[in-house]
Design a protein that fits this description.
Elements: H1 3-11, E1 14-17, H2 22-27, H3 29-36, E2 39-42, H4 46-55, H5 57-69, H6 74-92, H7 94-99, E3 106-110, H8 119-133, E4 138-143, H9 148-157, E5 162-167, H10 170-189, E6 199-204, H11 206-219, H12 222-226, H13 231-247, H14 250-257, E7 263-268, H15 281-284, E8 292-295, H16 297-306, H17 318-331, H18 335-365
Parallel strand pairs: 1-2, 1-8, 2-3, 3-4, 4-5, 5-6, 6-7, 7-8
Helix pairs in contact: 4-18, 6-18, 8-9, 9-10, 10-13, 11-13, 11-18, 13-17
């Protein structure tokens, strides 16, 4: 069954697992997935750590006991546990990292989501996470909020590899690419080795369908109903068009000549939220050479079992994708408003998960 994942890899898609826990590390589950399921990277987020630590008490008991004995603050105890997991995963993925010359073998860890609307604290947190994990294959996740954009530039400029997260609109994605390019230019001016600075841009997919489908239901016309389930994939394909245009720019070509690596599009939120849609759709319909797809385990298993992998499904789809968005506007969907709402909701959900984790660890520390 794993041949379908291999087929996806053969298209040029890097398969990353959107999950991490101490149980996966202790049991050898993650290591096995690297060997059998074509997994070449791992992403985490506050929700993932909340679930892992809150439900994995036995696996974290020793560290919690040590934190209690040392009278650590709750935030410090959480970062001790999460960075330990990420460091361990980085070590497991080091072979992939070396073999791919840094292209894959990456593990992401996110800055404190409560800082999503603050630039300077985000920069400080990113630098602290980078030296705490202390692995060259770590990616520091920074949200693509307006306040996060200058933080991306600054952190990239410091030579730190970044995963930009919570991107919902093509407009914001273009701003992210601009911030990344500015960071590379800053790093170049400082004499840093650009080939060591890696980045991915996490463009969310299924959440877009959920939000726009809800708007289409409110509109209620036949034309609106016919557009359900079209927006998420079309939005990602339009992001790919923007990515391809960036690669043709003189600005990028100059940085590439100096050794810079591309910031790859990463499709996130690829688990299907509406059961009427095929459970592999946000993977097989967004397969393109050079992209990353980070999947929760259920989605990865669905692709592995019955995924309809059918080659490159993104290249040369921009015109059709634009027609979908033109039709959405024509039926009355407030696309800018939807994207603003999605960003606000995304930040809020990560803050809520972090607050839940803080409360659970506080109780464990006594």
């Amino acid at each position: 069954m794993a041949d379908r994942l291999k087929e996806l890899s053969d298209v040029g898609v890097s398969i990353w697992l959107d999950d991490l826990s101490r149980e996966r590390l202790v049991s050898g589950n993650l290591e096995q997935m690297l060997e059998t399921d074509s997994v070449v990277g791992v992403t985490t987020n506050p929700s993932i750590f909340d679930k892992a630590i809150s439900s994995g008490g036995a696996d974290y008991a020793a560290q919690i006991a040590d934190a209690k004995a040392r009278k650590l603050a709750v935030d410090e105890a959480i970062r001790t546990m999460t960075t330990y997991d990420v460091r361990w995963a980085c070590d497991l993925l080091k072979k992939v990292y070396d073999k791919s010359e840094g292209y894959d073998g990456r593990v992401s860890i996110e800055v404190d989501p409560r800082m999503a609307r603050e630039t300077v604290p985000t920069i400080a947190e990113a630098k602290a996470l980078h030296w705490t994990v202390d692995r060259e294959n770590v990616l520091i996740k920074i949200p693509a909020t307006v306040e996060g954009l200058p933080a991306i530039t600054e952190v990239i400029g410091e030579g730190i590899s970044v995963n930009v997260t919570l991107i919902f609109s093509v407009e914001r994605y273009k701003a992210v690419m601009d911030a990344w390019l500015a960071g590379l230019e800053k790093a170049k001016a400082a004499g840093k080795d650009l080939s060591k600075i890696h980045s991915v841009a996490s463009f969310f997919v299924s959440r877009v369908d959920s939000a726009i489908d809800a708007e289409l239901s409110k509109i209620g016309t036949d034309q609106a109903e016919a557009l359900k389930g079209e927006a998420g994939i079309a939005n990602a394909r339009l992001a790919w068009v923007a990515y391809e245009e960036m690669k043709q720019s003189d600005r990028w070509k100059e940085l590439k000549a100096a050794g810079a690596r591309e910031q790859r599009p990463l499709w996130a939120s690829t688990g299907v939220k509406d059961p009427k849609y095929a459970d592999d759709r946000y993977v097989v319909e967004l397969a393109a050479p050079g992209c990353v797809n980070t999947m929760p385990e259920a989605t990865l298993e669905a692709v592995k079992d019955h995924g309809n992998v059918h080659g490159d499904t993104v290249s040369n789809t921009g015109a059709d994708a634009q027609r979908v968005f033109d039709d959405l506007a024509d039926v009355g969907v407030d696309l800018p408003g939807v994207f603003v709402g999605l960003e606000e909701e995304g930040v809020e959900k990560f803050v809520e998960a972090w607050d839940d984790l803080i409360e659970n660890v506080r109780k464990a520390l006594g």
